[in-house]
Design brief:
The chain is of the alpha/beta class. The chain contains 14 helices and 13 strands. It has two domains: 3-99, Beta-Lactamase, CATH 3.30.450; 106-350, P-loop containing nucleotide triphosphate hydrolases (Rossmann fold). A hairpin with a 5-residue loop joins strand 12 and strand 13 (276-284).
Length: 351
C-alpha cells in the first residue's frame, strides 16, 4: 500500500483527515464522521515504513527524540497536508489533515462581516477560537488574504506547521514554521517585534509566555491575531487569565481589557445538503466588555453579547438558531449543538 494512493483517495472522497495506525485499516474523516475502510489492517512495520518514507532526516531525528512531531508535506498532483506523527501503544501512528490551498472569501464561509472591520485596525488583539478541527485556520487565512488584497502592511505568521502559503500582494507576508524556521512560538514572537511588522499572526497561543508576548505586542502598536482551543468568548477570557498566578491576574485583566478588539468563537456543523457550515459567536470589546474583564466578571459577558446585537455581536445560541431557521442544518443537528452549548454554560457556571 502506497501513501500516494491513500492520499489520492482521501482527496477523491473529500475527507478532511486520514488516520493510519497499527492493527487497523486506514480510517478517513468525512464531514466530521470517522469512516473505516474495508482494507486489511496495517501491520506496525507497514505504518512505520509509510511514515518514515515521507519524513526528512531532521523530522526523523526530532521524532526519535520527542516521540511526536508536526510538519507539513506536499504531494504533487494531490495537495498539501499537515502531518502529526506519534508513538502509540502498538507502534508508530500518523494523522494527515488535508490543507485546502484555495483561499475562501468571507461570503463563501459565512464569516461575520464585522471581522473585516477588525482586520483593518492598526493595533489590538483578535482571537479566533473553537475546538480542534472547527476551521480556525481557514478563517484566519481568509482574514490574512482579505488584508493582503487591501492594504500595504508587513504580516508575519508563526505557525506549527505552516499550512497556507500566501503570496504577497499589497502586503509583504513572512511565514515562519516552528521547528523549521524557529525553535518556538515565544522565540519567534519575541523576535517578530524587531522585524518591523504591522500584523502578527500566531498559529496557537499555547503557553503563558506566548500569551504574554502577544498581549504586549498588541499593546505596543501591532495588530495581533491568535487562536485558542476554547469553546466560547467567556471561556476564552477565563483561559487567558487563569494561565497566570493569582498575584498577576489583576494586571493581566487590565492589559487584556485594553488590548482586546474581539473574540470570534466558531464551530462546524453538518450542512443539511452535505458538507459543513460554520456557526460563529462574536464578542466585540466595547466599554462594558472591557469593564467586565477588568473587574473579573466575565460570567456576565453572555448577557452583554445578547443585548448588543445591533453592534455586530452574536451569541452561539443565536448563530445556531439562524442556521436552523435558514434550513442550513437539520433539526437534529441544531438540537444536538444547542445541547452542547447548554452543557458548556452549566460547566462554566459551576466553575
Amino acid at each position: 500500500m502506497e501513501i500516494y494512493e491513500l492520499l489520492s483517495y482521501m482527496s477523491k472522497i473529500n475527507a478532511s483527515d486520514l488516520h493510519l495506525r497499527p492493527n487497523s485499516p486506514p480510517i478517513y474523516r468525512i464531514d466530521g464522521a470517522l469512516v473505516k475502510t474495508r482494507q486489511d489492517p496495517l501491520l506496525p512495520d507497514d505504518v512505520h515504513l509509510l511514515i518514515f518514507d515521507i519524513m526528512r532526516d531532521e523530522h526523523r531525528k526530532r521524532y526519535e527524540e520527542e516521540l511526536e512531531i508536526d510538519f507539513s508535506v506536499e504531494f504533487h498532483g494531490i495537495g498539501r497536508f499537515r502531518v502529526n506523527v506519534f508513538r502509540s501503544y502498538y507502534g508508530d501512528a500518523v494523522v494527515f489533515r488535508a490543507i485546502n490551498e484555495y483561499i475562501y472569501t468571507f461570503e463563501e464561509l459565512g464569516i461575520p462581516q464585522v471581522l473585516k472591520k477588525l482586520a483593518l485596525q492598526d493595533q489590538g488583539l483578535v482571537l479566533i477560537t473553537g475546538p480542534t478541527g472547527c476551521g480556525k485556520t481557514t478563517t484566519l487565512n481568509t482574514v490574512i488574504e482579505y488584508i493582503n488584497n487591501r492594504v500595504n502592511k508587513h504580516i508575519i505568521t508563526i505557525e506549527d506547521p505552516v499550512e497556507y502559503i500566501h503570496k504577497s500582494n499589497k502586503c509583504l507576508i513572512s511565514h515562519r514554521e516552528v521547528g523549521v524556521n524557529t525553535h518556538s512560538f515565544a522565540k519567534a514572537l519575541r523576535s517578530a517585534v524587531r522585524e518591523d511588522p504591522d500584523i502578527i499572526v500566531i498559529g496557537e497561543m499555547r503557553d503563558i509566555e506566548t500569551t504574554s508576548l502577544a498581549i504586549t505586542a498588541a499593546e505596543t502598536g501591532h495588530l495581533v491575531f491568535g487562536t485558542l482551543h476554547t469553546m466560547d468568548a467567556t471561556h476564552t477570557i477565563g483561559r487567558i487569565i487563569d494561565q497566570y498566578p493569582p498575584i498577576q491576574q489583576n494586571q493581566i485583566r487590565l492589559m487584556v481589557s485594553e488590548s482586546l478588539l474581539g473574540v470570534i468563537s466558531q464551530r462546524l456543523l453538518k450542512r443539511k445538503t452535505g458538507g459543513r457550515v460554520g456557526a460563529y459567536e462574536i464578542l466585540l470589546s466595547i466599554p462594558a466588555v472591557a469593564n467586565l474583564i477588568r473587574e473579573g466578571k466575565t460570567f456576565q459577558l453572555p448577557s452583554v453579547i445578547q443585548t448588543h446585537n445591533k453592534m455586530g455581536m452574536k451569541s452561539m445560541e443565536s448563530a445556531l438558531k439562524q442556521l436552523y431557521d435558514e434550513s442550513l442544518i437539520t433539526k437534529e443537528e441544531y438540537l444536538s449543538a444547542e445541547k452542547e452549548s447548554d452543557k458548556l454554560i452549566e460547566k462554566l457556571v459551576k466553575n
